[in-house]
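In the previous chapter we treated chains in isolation. Here, by contrast, the input contains two separate entities that must be folded as one system, with a combined length of 225 residues.
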Amino acid sequence: DAKTTQPNSMESNEEEPVHLPCNHSTISGTDYIHWYRQLPSQGPEYVIHGLTSNVNNRMASLAIAEDRKSSTLILHRATLRDAAVYYCIPQRFNQGGKLIFGQGTELSVKP
Amino acid sequence: NAGVTQTPKFQVLKTGQSMTLQCAQDMNHEYMSWYRQDPGMGLRLIHYSVGAGITDQGEVPNGYNVSRSTTEDFPLRLLSAAPSQTSVYFCASSYSPGGRNEQFFGPGTRLTVL
């Protein structure tokens, strides 16, 4: 399983963009890069995932480095509701339900 | 769709008692899994299933049993509860194998073992 490195914590101001980095230098060529977040006292929530190209959805954007050894989750305008722990998880194409969670980045958002 | 449901929401057990945590999903997902989350920690995989009748161990399987007799249900059994099993338990499901698909998580069961 690929190992990930994320900052323990980050701070942002409300309505400003946030860039959450993740290093996954041991990722294999078939690993998708998933991001989940966990709001306080809730179960994890899917945010976005990608393989090689940058991806956008209604929640966030995912920028994947050309060598795929790192990625950045971009929240375009942080809200108070985005305060959560964000997990970057490389996942094999054939691993099904097997997500390996690291420590994640705790994002706090200031009004 | 109700999504992934878990019961009970809270449970207190005495050391040595057994119990079953229930998990159900109504999305016809083949893949289901159980995680535990200790205070201040990330989630750790206990067991997972790639379809009815098929289960496998995750990172921390000791002290837990699972079975998958239907697509919808994936119960987690604690055989003889220990204080070290005090944790929040999350069930998750996904449509098909691997990286292309998102996982849906339940709201969790908070278990305390005295």
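The beta strands of chain A are 9-13, 18-23, 32-38, 45-50, 55-56, 61-64, 70-75, 84-91, 105-110. Chain A touches chain B at residues 30-32, 34, 36, 42-46, 49, 51, 85, 87, 91-104 (CB under 8 Å). Compare these points with the single-chain example from earlier in the chapter.
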